[in-house]
Write a structure and sequence with these properties.
single chain, mainly alpha, elongated
Length: 87
């Protein structure tokens, strides 16, 4: 069943690529304008990916710091408990 799904996905992507190529061939603007538009959109996409990557790194740092803090607190509680048992 997975093979059937992957085959469908491949055919869908192939159809999308063919449709995009046909759309570019019949676009009302010149090739130079089309290339400029593609370059602009690629730049915008790159900027968005970079910003999302930075956000992801920041969130990862925050989670790491929070986890580290929780681990430190747990270690302190364990140490206090150990001292109480030894007393």
């Amino acid at each position: 069943m997975r093979e059937d799904d992957s085959t469908k996905a491949i055919w869908f992507l192939t159809g999308a690529a063919i449709g995009a190529a046909i759309a570019l061939l019949y676009a009302p603007q010149s090739g130079e304008e089309t290339r400029r538009l593609i370059k602009q959109k690629a730049g915008e996409g790159s900027e968005q990916l970079t910003a999302q990557g930075r956000d992801l790194v920041d969130r990862g740092r925050e989670l790491y710091d929070k986890g580290r803090s929780m681990a430190d607190e747990a270690a302190e509680m364990f140490e206090r408990g150990r001292r109480m048992v030894q007393s």
